[in-house]
Amino acid sequence: MSNNWDYEQSAPPLNDTKVDQLAGLSPGPIDELPTLAIDIPDYQIIKNLESRIQDSVGYWDSPDGYNLRQARGDNMRLYLGKQLDVRSLYRFQIPYIENQIYIAEQAILSYVTAQSPQPEVSPAQDNPRSKIFAIDLEKVCMAHSQKVQLQQLLENAVRNALNKRIGIIYFEFVPDHGENGEIIPKALNPEEVIIDKNARQGENPAFISRQLKMSVNEACNRWPGKKEEIYKECGIIRGTYKQLEEILNIREVWVTYYDKSYEPKEACVYYFGNIVLEKDKNPHWLYATKNKNFLDMPRKPFIPLNFDNDGQHWVDETSAVEQAGNIQNILNKRGRQLMEVADKANGTLVIDTRSGISKSDSQDLTGDPNQHIVIAGLPGVNSQDLIFRLDPPEIPDFLMQDKIDQRTTIHAIMGTPSEFTGSNDGDDDSETLGQSIMKKDQASGRQDLYVRAIDRFMNQYFNFLIQMMVVWYNEKHFFVYNGGDGEFDYLTISRDLIEDGIAVNVKSGTSLPFDKQRQEAIVLQLLKMDASISLLDAYKLLHMQNPQQLYDNWAKQKTDPMALARDALDEMDEAKAFIAYAEFRGGKTPKDPEDPSKEFVLSLRKQMLSDEFLNIKKPWTRANHAAFIKYVDKAITSLELRTSLDLMSKEGIQMLEPDQPIQPLPPPMPPMQPGMGMPGQPMQPPGMMPPGGIPGQPTVGALPQAAPPPMGAPMGMPPQLPNPQQPAMPPPPGVGGIPPVL
């Protein structure tokens, strides 16, 4: 037994004493690494980063450790079906590949990414407004997911985690995307990402390096101030079209370094060759107003997905594809053996040299049923003794059984039996439907590990997405969300509308498929039988959006249908009013109110009664404080004008009805002085009206006294009667009810 064999069997699989095997080492320095900083000369930044990157690359690719490059290459060949070296075959042999790993991986991918994961936003406060904005933020996250095709990104990340031991989604803000820029996530190729070897799972790595492929044109467009240095580094003098389309490999490195006070700082560096194109602090963090950030601390914009990880590193130790790889190679060998035996099903043709058929003539024997063979007969020799066919070999039963066993073993390792993949091995036709369902349920239980990993992964994703919104959505962004119920929600989001104190989690298992038809049939049958199931539970089991809201609406429909309509309008108007209020509070001026309703104005008034508004506390200033009052004044004026015009139009329609003759308009009346009556009438006290009304006007009769026409309205306008369905609006600013500028 060799020493090498002893070492391989006795040494731990990961035996780098600088990183993995710390037990038994004496306390003290074990490794020396270059400094990570951006306040040093550019050449030193590049030198230090390259040294750290190459040190980690050597660790990941070491044959005694992760052997990451070799493992990724082998896994991709297994997945793509390039599993056989054709140089090992004879010329007559045909390669045989039965790629069960591909089938199993596709089944896993289809199962764990059947639906887009759904975030759940907890409101910051226990009040209707906070709950509305939490629900709207959920819808914005889902609308953003639809916009960036999150489900496809998730599929790529899962596929990379299975084949390359880690899946990565990367966030960036693209200013040129849309009107106000957009947050764009990308599923990165893990082979183009280098992670610090010392970072444990869940920790913040000292650095993460990403490779960028960019032309000279693109580099000069992104860093115009570095044009001359880029030209010099690339050896460009004139800048021809061919030279400017030269492709560059640029490193984007996100680093954590410590200042002189030993405080951690996050930064990003772009460089290639000997040029530092950009070095700056992490842009995905609010430094001036730290309390406005959603996350507790700045993070690098990389979200990792792991399946087989013990927490020691960011990269998985193994994968299901690797574990099933050797079995896949044996399955291919057994399949080729069976194929070669089947090729000999017709037996072997034997020709005696005494038949007169030469070796070259035998090459012309194709086996055609109509082909004739001419031989020279020999005295006393039977022709069947000169040309005959040997019986074909029998296929051993164990060979076919062994092939089926290898196929079953692959799917047992990956948790994808035939019931899970939708295939049929044909080895158990007597299996009942119930037995098949039980086996499928057991197989889906094997996938729960992947499901939980995806839930954790997407929880990090949505938390970082909201942090990006807090940083980059300083202007309004508009989304349209279709929740699958046929209704489209038109949503507006900005950083001012994201309340402090919210929490975001992913609803567990929302990426999984479910049997809608079966579940709906059971629920509907229970409701039809008037069984012990509440309507609210039925809504939940039917996986409807907002089941509690649906139940509340049903209850209101039963008791007071008009309350349901009013609630919907009130919620919408309150949301619009708070959006305008938040914009003024943030120092912005929204557009003038368009067709404001009574509920909208009352919601604005509600905002004006808060202590924050009345006492001009931060972040209010006198300027935006006064601007908000002016905004409310415009809303009230618009509402009063439209209400007056609406009453005038209604009175005009009544006067034009056929059963009521048109009355001529009275002549213009001279202005009335307080305390004076009409011409020819005795004087009346102010505010009183003669018993017969105004001459020339129809008598109101027993109806309540009409209010005087609004100021500025033309004389002779029909009197405005109080409407019990429309209570009086609050007076304009300065008149009463709405506080003036303090």
Which keywords apply here?
alpha+beta, 14 strands, 12% strand, disordered C terminus
Write the layout of secondary structure elements.
Elements: H1 3-10, H2 42-60, H3 68-80, H4 100-112, E1 119-122, H5 128-148, H6 150-164, E2 167-174, E3 182-188, E4 193-195, E5 207-215, H7 216-222, H8 227-234, H9 241-244, E6 247-258, E7 264-272, E8 275-281, E9 302-305, H10 320-343, E10 348-351, H11 359-362, H12 383-386, E11 387-390, H13 397-414, H14 418-421, H15 433-446, H16 448-472, E12 477-482, E13 488-493, E14 503-506, H17 516-528, H18 535-541, H19 547-559, H20 561-585, H21 598-608, H22 611-614, H23 622-655
Antiparallel strand pairs: 1-14, 2-3, 2-9, 4-5, 5-6, 6-7, 7-8, 10-11, 12-13
Mean pLDDT: 79
Which class do the helix and strand fractions yield? Answer: alpha+beta
Overall, the morphology is extended
Radius of gyration: 40 Å
Q: What's a concise summary of this model?
A:
With 742 residues, the chain is of the alpha+beta class. The protein has 23 helices and 14 strands. The strands form 5 sheets. The chain has a 5-stranded antiparallel β-sheet with strand order 4-5-6-7-8.
